[in-house]
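hey so i finally got around to running the thing on that chain from the lab meeting. sorry it took forever, my laptop kept dying and i had to restart like 3 times. anyway pasting the input first so we r on the same page abt which one it is
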Amino acid sequence: MIIDEHRQWLINFYKQREWYQYSPFIRLNFLMEEVGELAQTVRAIELGRDHPGETSQTPTELNEHLKEELADVLDQVLILSEKYQLDVDELIVQSETKLKKRFHED
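ok and heres what got predicted. didnt touch it at all, straight out
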């Protein structure tokens, strides 16, 4: 699966730069930072931005920024899952199972 390949590449990338050694607690803070940046991007798309000194972005630029921030959030989730030795495929299955059970889907 492509997500597992990316996770392994990401782990190697982080280890080469000595970023991997941070604890899950610190990594969670990085995740929260990325979620904040994602929230700011979604706000700009949905409501616009009126911050002084900030240049307006085209819809294409905003979409690219959205993809970048979602990818950053995903990367932090993948690193956290590795830190706790959780299989990403199992997380996906668990998510689907929980939602199907909760909403009585087969």
